[in-house]
């Protein structure tokens, strides 16, 4: 629910004190306004006290929630009927990554294949009181070998997803995209943060904030296609994709605006399908209908974006982490564009974030059985 517009007059509530309970009833609504009728001590207020509150119009179908408030519970409930998939957990040689994989296993999301030096893995498990009995362990000498073994297992169909452990992202992704690995598809790989914050009415995707440093136009087209596919798997039939820049007008001196305009034309010509694209849009116009209206922007995407496509990795990473650490956003992280989904989270991510990422990987793995990438 957005804040009332500045020209809206709200009636004061006389005789209501801090700690009192109010009953709020939706008296009426239209495309942009809810009229709320408040009652105190079971006595309805007079119509003069009805509160008109602006609401975003034309919202997309609600996708699955991520690890925010009760979102993780709902996400787990949504995937409960799906059988777990075998996941190669690459070098889970610290307590956080090993515990996350086993938590996801206990919740019925994954069947982990632990790929790591056995002695080091068992030492971590012993120190944390973790039981490894009954789990498949692929013994390798070091993290680089773990990444290569994970890629081979995925290419051979022995695992249907990969999960990053305590190795560096570059080390894992180099093994995945190597020509000899057999995991590449016609699309470029890209990372999606699935985020949820109390200040926005729906979960949304920020991409790419972890893999592609400075993507060109064709690379951004693949990033858009991957994000649209993920949004559809999460329940948004036709996601709205905002292509971000610093301004909402095309400026030949600002390459991000030129790419945004070209991507929209590619969508018009059927080169990017499945979503509604608009850009360039500044961040405020992408997430706030009021900001877009103030600037006179008429757009099916402005103020209600499901996907935020950023100009480059630096801006995307800063945006995502600002939302997480200052905006309280919950997150999940996943890589698309390879033959299997890849759970890619940060060492600082919470247990809930890692579990939500595994649940999304489960959805994607089952989707890939029907529609291979």
Automatic annotation (TrEMBL):
Q: Please give the residue ranges the record annotates as the region Disordered.
A: 42-61
Residues forming the Phosphate acetyl/butaryl transferase domain are: 150-361
Q: Where is the composition biased (Polar residues)?
A: 45-54
- The answer to whether UniProt assigns keyword Kinase to this entry is no
Taxonomically, the superkingdom here is Bacteria
Q: Which Pfam families match?
A: PTA_PTB
What are the GO MF terms of this UniProt record? Answer: acyltransferase activity
Taxonomic source organism? Comamonas testosteroni (Pseudomonas testosteroni)
Coiled coil start-end: none
* Protein name, entry field: Phosphate acetyl/butyryl transferase
PANTHER family hit by this protein? PHOSPHATE ACETYLTRANSFERASE (PTHR43356:SF2)
């Amino acid at each position: 629910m957005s804040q009332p517009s500045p020209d809206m007059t709200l009636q004061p509530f006389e005789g209501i004190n801090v700690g009192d309970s109010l009953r709020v009833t939706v008296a009426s609504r239209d495309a942009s306004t809810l009229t709320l009728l408040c009652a105190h001590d079971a006595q309805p207020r007079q119509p003069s006290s009805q509160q008109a509150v602006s609401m975003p119009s034309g919202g997309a179908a609600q996708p699955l929630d991520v690890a925010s408030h009760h979102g993780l519970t709902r996400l787990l409930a949504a995937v409960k009927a799906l059988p777990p998939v075998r996941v190669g957990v690459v070098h889970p040689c610290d307590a956080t990554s090993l515990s996350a994989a086993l938590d996801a296993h206990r919740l019925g999301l994954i069947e982990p294949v632990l790929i790591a030096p056995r002695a080091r893995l068992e030492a971590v498990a012993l120190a944390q009181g973790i039981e490894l009995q009954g789990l498949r362990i692929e013994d390798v000498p070091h993290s680089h070998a773990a990444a290569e073994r994970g890629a081979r297992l995925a290419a051979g169909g022995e695992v249907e997803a990969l999960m990053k452990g305590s190795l560096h992202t570059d080390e894992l992704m180099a093994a995945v995209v190597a020509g000899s690995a057999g995991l590449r598809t016609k699309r470029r790989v890209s990372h999606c943060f699935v985020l949820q914050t109390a200040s926005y009415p729906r979960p949304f995707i920020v991409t790419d904030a972890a893999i592609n440093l400075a993507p060109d136009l064709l690379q951004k087209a693949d990033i858009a296609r991957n994000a649209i596919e993920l949004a559809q798997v999460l329940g948004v039939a036709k996601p709205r994709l905002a292509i971000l820049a610093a301004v909402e007008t095309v400026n030949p001196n600002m390459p991000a605006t030129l790419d945004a305009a070209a991507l929209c034309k590619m969508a018009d010509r059927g080169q990017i399908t499945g979503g509604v694209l608009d850009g360039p849009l500044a961040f405020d116009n992408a997430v706030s209908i009021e900001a877009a209206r103030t600037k006179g922007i008429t757009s099916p995407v402005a103020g209600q974006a499901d996907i935020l496509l950023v100009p480059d990795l630096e801006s995307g990473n800063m945006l995502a982490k600002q939302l997480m650490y200052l905006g309280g956003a919950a997150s999940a992280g996943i890589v698309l564009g390879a033959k299997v989904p890849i759970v890619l989270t940060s060492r600082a991510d919470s247990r809930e974030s890692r579990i939500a990422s595994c649940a999304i990987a489960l959805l994607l793995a089952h989707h890939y059985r029907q529609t291979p990438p």
